[in-house]
């Protein structure tokens, strides 16, 4: 039987060295193990229960296919609305192998697995965009790596690209650098600074995910632990609130005077990192 969890497989063969096919006979993907697709589909269905607005949009607009003709490097909803999507991971550790397998089984060209090397990471991005008979006309990016790769390797693609959507601080900074240099030749949307991203995703989602992530990786008890959080933006606020509620002793480092004042008024001690780095149990960076 196929392994059920992302890190449970004993097979150390690189996915790049395997020839896999989904049930439709397609091999235009590269994932850890296509046999994990059924388990991944269940994970997707569980996640969809937390996305009522997106599911309602998919149901309402599916018949209209408003994205017909869009070739995008979000996957299932965009596909349901008519877009042709290809996907590569934005982080070498963030991919859930089962979910990637489920998407590949559904016919999406997915190039990602957990634990990629840096060479694998760029190889996956290249396979995502460099395919005969297909060229992206929209980019959904996280961190700016996909945009950077196309700009570096395939600049002619920008002749057909209509726009870029970027959701991270790092990626937005890279786009601003391109713009200042006069090299940003297509419209780019800064999703990171949108109200819903800043005030909801960054604050409330991080407030829950920080505890879940730390518990899964360390299994430690939070009460009494000394934690330093670097940055008191929306992400930092969420992390500090969650850890404070669990009984942790929380220190904050912050270069922005207004955010620093907010941290002080919220009851956190402002410090310089070198003052506490040797005594704290956990260091969390929330600087983008």
UniProtKB/TrEMBL annotation:
| PROSITE patterns reported for this sequence | ADOHCYASE_1 (PS00738), ADOHCYASE_2 (PS00739)
One GO CC term, this protein: cytosol
Q: Which Gene3D superfamilies match?
A: Adenosylhomocysteinase-like, NAD(P)-binding Rossmann-like Domain
Provide this UniProt record's keywords sorted from A to Z. NAD, One-carbon metabolism
Q: Keyword NAD on this protein?
A: yes
> What SUPFAM superfamilies does the record point to?
Formate/glycerate dehydrogenase catalytic domain-like (SSF52283), NAD(P)-binding Rossmann-fold domains (SSF51735)
Where the record annotates domain S-adenosyl-L-homocysteine hydrolase NAD binding, the positions are: 202-288
Identify the cofactor(s).
NAD(+)
The residue stretches assigned to a coiled coil in this entry are none
Superkingdom field: Eukaryota
The biological processes this protein is annotated with in GO are: one-carbon metabolic process; S-adenosylmethionine cycle
Keyword Aminoacyl-tRNA synthetase found = no
Q: InterPro entries of this UniProt entry? A: Adenosylhomocyst_ase-like_sf, Adenosylhomocysteinase-like, Ado_hCys_hydrolase_NAD-bd, NAD(P)-bd_dom_sf, S-Ado-L-homoCys_hydrolase_CS
Q: Where are the annotated segments for Disordered? A: 1-28
Family in the record: Belongs to the adenosylhomocysteinase family.
Protein's name in the database: SAHH3 Adenosylhomocysteinase
The uppermost taxa in this organism's lineage are: Eukaryota, Metazoa, Chordata, Craniata, Vertebrata
